[in-house]
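Action item from last meeting closed. Structure (500 res):
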């Protein structure tokens, strides 16, 4: 049998063995990572990375450690920069959501305080880009009572809020260049910014408060009075529904209810169990964008979602933690597994079993099946549960490359230089193409072209070489067979074994 026929027959076999879809993937352990990054570590109590102090924005993962903000590129897993924003500051803790924010361009805004000789704290806001360069800085002369924070509005504006007295705040709003757009004094408590609404609270009675909602221009949209005896305030959804809940200890049931901007009750749902965290908590959405159309959370041992019309879905998950993503999927995690569901019908998309070795691991969900794992040794790994990286073994030895192999349209694609050099060959780029030399074999290929030659003889590739994360990926089986290697695909493991 000639080389061309051998190649064609082996390609047909591998296509039959490869998975035909990437949905509903289930893994018995943690799959191969796209990349892993080891963060610096020391004995400082804030040296350890937490899922609660990490966010994903504009192609970067931002995390706090060693009193600094560190930035890692999510495509390559390479450290991009570090921001020593706490230097000379009296702020002793770090987290995103109040004293620090990241906008959709990847810029960081950090509010810090320095204690003067008189004992008064002087606050300042500093803006940095994702390269760690300081862009601008603003200082404040107000004497702060106790509360201060920074917000990113949907229109891209940056706002600081400073408490000057009881139910007295002052806010400063800037554009991305640091130009002051507005300074405003408030005779109310600033609750924060959520789903396009800036919210303030005023106490108007012994058991009553007034919630006021403003748009990004600080124009009042509506107000709503709330009696404490009715329950607790949760927040406001993307479609402008104000959510409340009340737990009845006698029946062990929680009633969630939503009101529109006129105060009319839109829906009310009684669910078994005590209310836990819900989707309106910021730390349940570490990725980009917004989780829309649903309110949900934990009640008892179940996870639930309620749409704007009151349609309710529930899943029994035991003691669990959840995170949402802007592709309208939800990650549920307990000590045994991670599962990813489609929000529209709570259908299972992907699952991954956890073992005792993962008991201290933390996970960040970015959507599209992509999970960032943080282990106890401060190693961050990017794992695509929907379409995980392919493991490659050469003569039973696990291979490691600068970029992970990928399953692209049912063809295993591997980094060109890493695999060729591991097999003992050479890579030479010339005339816009790549020349692979291995003994007497000469293989010529071009990126995005499905034609290749072996010792001058033409072949058609099932998948053309591609550029992936700045690396050239080529079809593994074609390369290996052309060089005289044996290739075995084990679908259950998502691994390829090469024997020379």
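Sequence:
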């Amino acid at each position: 049998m000639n080389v061309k026929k051998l190649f064609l027959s082996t390609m047909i076999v591998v296509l039959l063995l490869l998975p035909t879809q990437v949905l509903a993937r289930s893994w018995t352990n943690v799959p191969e990572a796209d990349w892993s990054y080891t963060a610096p570590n020391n004995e400082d109590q804030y040296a350890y990375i937490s899922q609660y102090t990490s966010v994903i924005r504009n192609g970067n993962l931002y995390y706090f450690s060693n009193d600094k903000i560190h930035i890692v590129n999510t495509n390559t897993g390479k450290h991009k920069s570090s921001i020593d924003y706490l230097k000379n500051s009296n702020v002793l803790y770090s987290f995103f959501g109040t004293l620090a924010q990241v906008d959709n361009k990847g810029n960081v805004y950090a509010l810090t305080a320095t204690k003067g000789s008189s004992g008064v704290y002087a606050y300042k806001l500093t803006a940095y880009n994702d390269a760690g360069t300081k862009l601008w800085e603003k200082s404040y002369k107000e004497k702060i009572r106790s509360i201060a924070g920074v917000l990113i509005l949907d229109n891209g504006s940056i706002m600081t809020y400073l408490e000057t007295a009881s139910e007295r705040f002052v806010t400063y709003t800037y554009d991305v260049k640091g130009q002051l757009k507005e300074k405003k004094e408030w005779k109310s408590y600033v609750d924060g910014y959520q789903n396009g609404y800036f919210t303030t609270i005023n106490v108007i009675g012994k058991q009553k408060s007034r919630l006021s909602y403003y748009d990004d221009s600080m124009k009042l949209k509506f107000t709503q009075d709330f009696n404490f005896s009715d329950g607790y305030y949760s927040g406001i959804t993307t479609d402008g529904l104000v959510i409340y809940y009340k737990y009845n200890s006698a029946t062990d049931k929680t009633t969630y209810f939503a009101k529109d901007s006129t105060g009319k009750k839109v829906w009310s749902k009684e669910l078994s169990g005590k209310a836990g965290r819900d989707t309106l908590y910021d730390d349940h959405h570490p990725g980009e964008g917004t989780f829309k159309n649903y309110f949900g959370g934990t009640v008892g041992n179940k996870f639930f979602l309620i749409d704007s019309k009151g349609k309710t879905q529930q899943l029994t998950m035991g003691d669990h933690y959840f995170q949402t993503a802007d592709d309208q999927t939800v990650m549920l995690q307990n000590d045994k597994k991670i599962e990813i569901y489609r929000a529209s019908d709570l259908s299972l998309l992907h699952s991954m079993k956890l073992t005792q070795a993962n008991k201290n691991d933390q996970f960040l969900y970015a959507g599209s099946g992509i999970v960032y794992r943080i282990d106890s040794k401060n190693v961050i790994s990017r794992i695509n549960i929907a379409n995980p990286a392919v493991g490659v073994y050469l003569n039973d030895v696990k291979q490691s490359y600068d970029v992970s192999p990928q399953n692209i349209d049912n063809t295993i694609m591997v980094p060109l230089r890493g695999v060729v050099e591991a097999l003992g060959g050479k890579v030479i780029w010339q005339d816009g193409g790549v020349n692979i030399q291995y003994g007497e074999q000469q293989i010529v290929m071009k990126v995005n072209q499905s034609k290749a030659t072996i010792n001058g003889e033409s072949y058609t590739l099932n998948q053309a070489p591609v550029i992936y994360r700045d690396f050239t990926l080529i079809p593994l089986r074609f390369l290996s067979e052309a060089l005289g290697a044996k290739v075995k695909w084990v679908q259950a493991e998502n691994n390829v074994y090469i024997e020379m």
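Note appended to the action item: The first strand starts at residue 25 and ends at 27.
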